[in-house]
Structures are given as structure tokens and as C-alpha cells.
Design a protein that fits this description.
Elements: H1 4-22, H2 26-37, H3 40-47, E1 53-61, E2 67-76, E3 89-96, E4 102-106, E5 111-114, H4 115-121
């Protein structure tokens, strides 16, 4: 009977540790999203939009360890003239946990590339 608490701990602890690593808390995701919105090229992207259109980002934990996925979408109001029920994806980005690298999903190439491609393609310098 003295082994029962030890066995329960040994069986449950790995799952608790894994779930903490796999699922970042909301504050962590919000911090990445806020930091992403503060990038100069993201500010330039948001400032050059027609009336009634806004940009929003949502952050998720990536399948790759030490990376986050940031999904950037366009949102429409009725005054924009576009369908408010449609929110086209502007881009999918991968951000390293230490925020030292940002990659952009090049849908034509089918791979993540330097964010410079996104910036250059949209003249966001």
C-alpha cells in the first residue's frame, strides 16, 4: 500500500508535464500576439488598409517545439463593401519561442521562408 502514492505520481506526472509544455497559457499566447502586432512591418500593413477593413492575429502553439504559429486575417465591416462573413487569411507565420526568428508560409513554395519575402512582396519597408 505504501507504493500506491508513488505509482500514481509516477503514472500521472508525465502527463501533467507534457500538457504544460504542449499548451501554453493564454497570457503567453497574448504576449506573442501583442509583440507580433508591434513589428514595424505589421504596423505598416495595418495602417494601409481601406475603410472598414482591419487585420487581426491569433497565436497558437506550433507542432514544432519552441515555435508558435501566428495566423493573420483580414476582417470586414459592412461599410467596407466586402462580405463581413468572410475573413481571408493574410498570412501564416511561425515565431520562435525566443522571438528571434519569424518565418512566413509561402503557399506557392509550400514551406516556411524568411518573413522578408512577405515584407518585400507587399512593400512594407
Amino acid at each position: 500500500m505504501k507504493l500506491l502514492p508513488f505509482l500514481i505520481t509516477a503514472l500521472v506526472l508525465p502527463f501533467l508535464v507534457f500538457s504544460q509544455e504542449a499548451e501554453p497559457n493564454d497570457a503567453e499566447l497574448e504576449a506573442i500576439t501583442e509583440w507580433f502586432h508591434e513589428q514595424s512591418w505589421m504596423i505598416a500593413l495595418c495602417s494601409d488598409l481601406p475603410k472598414g477593413i482591419s487585420i487581426s492575429a491569433q497565436t497558437f502553439r506550433d507542432e514544432e517545439p519552441d515555435w508558435y504559429l501566428v495566423e493573420v486575417r483580414e476582417f470586414h465591416t459592412a461599410e467596407s463593401g466586402y462580405d463581413p462573413n468572410v475573413s481571408p487569411m493574410v498570412g501564416m507565420f511561425r515565431v520562435s519561442e525566443d522571438r528571434s526568428k519569424i518565418l512566413y508560409m509561402d503557399v506557392v513554395a509550400g514551406e516556411f521562408v524568411s518573413v522578408r519575402k512577405f515584407i518585400e512582396d507587399r512593400n512594407l519597408w
